[in-house]
Amino acid sequence: MRRISFFSLLAFLMLFLSMTACDYIDSLNTKKQVKPKKNIAQEHLNNIKKRGKIIAATDYNDHEYFIYRDAPMGFQYDLLTQLSQHMGLQLEIVVLRNQPDALKSLNKFEYDILATDLAVTAEIKQKVLISDPIYQSKQVLVQRLPNNWRTLSKKEIEAKIIRDALDLQEKKVHIRKGSVSVNRLAQINEETGGDIIIIEDELSVEELVDMVAKGIINYTVCDSHVAAINKKYHNNIDIETHLGSYSQNLAWAFPKGSDSLQKEVNLWLAELKDGREFAQIYNKYFNSANLSEVSSVSHYSIPAGGISPFDESIKKYSKQIDWDWKLVTSLIYQESKFDPEVVSWNGAMGLMQMMPATANIYGISQKSSPEEQISAGVKYLKLLDAQLAPLVKDGAERRKFVLAAYNVGIAHVFDAQRLAKKYNKDPRKWDDHVDYYILNKSDPKYYQDPLCYYGYCRGSETYKFVNEIFDRYQTYQTLFK
Questions:
Q1: CATH topology for 44-134+250-286?
Q2: Which CATH class is domain 139-246?
Q3: What does the pLDDT average to over 247-258?
Q4: Helices and strands per DSSP (H, E), number in the chain
Q5: Residues 259-287, mean pLDDT to the nearest whole number
Q6: Which residues contact 415 (CB under 8 A, 6 or more apart)?
Q7: What pLDDT is recorded for position 23?
């Protein structure tokens, strides 16, 4: 009889036990089989619909997204609102704080759509999914017209400004850091063997254009549609020199792999562009005239010794807020140049240029009489005055705060007061205190401050608005002494 050694028996037992354990584990896996986790990108659109809202990231500036008179506005905001309504979803806006990281955050599904002026390039297409083009733009040179441009002929002006990129050689051109304009100028240098001096700044496009208009710098470059907006505020700049013959597609971006959302948005976008609504939204921000170009009203007669055709109504209602009627008159001129029928690019209407939502509260419309418009406007001034009274006790000082709030919205005024306090200025004083922070509320240093709850605004317009009303008011006072 063959004898089995102890070690052979031990080896056999270990092999048997290991095989039994494997079979047991396999049986457990069979009984408790777990379905593989679905890819988040593949389920992205379904997850959005289950969530009940779409989250979109955009940028604070004067055309993509901003708060004006306490209402959200902007080209990208209006489009996103249309999309969310089409999908039956709520809209949540995320404001970009760090542009270079925007695509990384998108691919981490921190938001669903990146809705900015994203230039479509081969590099971008490798990183994210891209929508069909929202619109197109060209890179244009922003330069200052000659100081005496109003007295010159078109031919004389053309002789003094740049129309060919070759003439930029050895000239300094300031560009927003990270802008596609940097690549375009570098390409021109490479193609021409030239030496355009490219200076990348941390400033916004609006700030750079403002510096050109003021003569601080000579040149900057930006997208043509952005230049068109800034031209409304600076009539001494030229934006007609194109840097290249081709247009750049601008589009939205989606997380990599989110094909279902991309398809849904593209179908909606094609439908929107087939109708009138897209053109209306585009024209609202890029093709509308500046209110300052509105002519003075001519079909109402001005009484002898008066300022406007509506002096008696203004005197009547100014008493309700204890304001000099001439100050209210100066405000009305600033807003509408005494035209009760004017409607601005943002929907503000009538003598007092009330926004539709505010006008609705006070029961007025475009059909309301001039007296009804004045009455409603004064009531709104009274409300703003009451809201600011606890923070600015002095009534005369408070009027500047009220006018600023009337122009840009009280939320931006509160932001400026918080910033003033942070930087050791007096939040109860306007001149050289709070007005500085309104003026600079287009600077990322301030509008990205945690104390600045309502972000970007073109504060230079509000700053000018208040100053011009009080300068005109002083003139009116002199005339009526």
A1: D-Maltodextrin-Binding Protein; domain 2 (3.40.190)
A2: alpha beta
A3: 92
A4: 20, 13
A5: 90
A6: 437, 441, 451, 452, 453, 454
A7: 52
Q: Which fold has domain 291-479?
A: Lysozyme (1.10.530)
Comparing CA positions, the residue from 111, 130, 106, 107 lying closest to residue 119 is 130
The pLDDT, as a whole number, for residue 179 is 79
Residue 197, C-beta contacts closer than 8 angstroms, at least 6 positions apart: 170, 171, 172, 173
Report which of residues 229 and 194 the model is more confident about: 229
What the block records as the tokens of 448 is 């990205």
Tell me: pLDDT of 239 over 60: yes
Taken in order 247, 251, 253, 258, is the CA torsion positive or negative?
Answer: negative
Q: Cα dist. 390→201, 386, 427 in Å?
A: 40, 8, 12
Q: Which residue bears the tokens 């897209």? A: 278
What pLDDT is attached to residue 17? 47
Q: What span, in angstroms and rounded, lies between the C-alpha atoms of 369 and 351?
A: 10
**What span, in angstroms and rounded, lies between the C-alpha atoms of 141 and 162?**
9
Query: Over the stretch 142-162, which tens digit does the pLDDT of each residue have?
Result: 999 998 898 999 999 999 999
Same fold, 44-134+250-286 and 139-246: yes
What is d(CA 120, CA 249) in angstroms, rounded to the nearest whole number? 6
CB contact at 8 A, 42 and 80: no
Ranges of H-type helices in 52-165: 75-87, 102-107, 122-127, 154-158
Q: Angle at the Cα of 478 (from 473 to 481), degrees rounded to 5?
A: 120
Q: Where are the domains of the chain?
A: 44-134+250-286, 139-246, 291-479
**Which 8-state DSSP code applies to residue 433?**
I
- Mean pLDDT across 248-271: 94
d(CA 262, CA 267): 9
Handedness of CA 284, 69, 376, 315 (dihedral sign): negative
**Helices 370-388 and 395-408, interaxial angle, to 10°?**
120
Average pLDDT, the chain: 86
Q: Beta-carbon neighbour count of residue 395 at 10 Å?
A: 13
Q: Please give the average per-residue pLDDT across 380-389, as a whole number.
A: 97
- Average pLDDT over every residue of 366-377: 94
Residue 254, beta-bridge partner list: 129
Residue 380 has pLDDT above 60, yes or no: yes
In terms of pLDDT, which residue wins out, 207 or 406?
406
Give me the pLDDT at residue 96, please.
85
Q: Structure tokens of 273?
A: 């562009």
The token pair at 370 is 């001039």
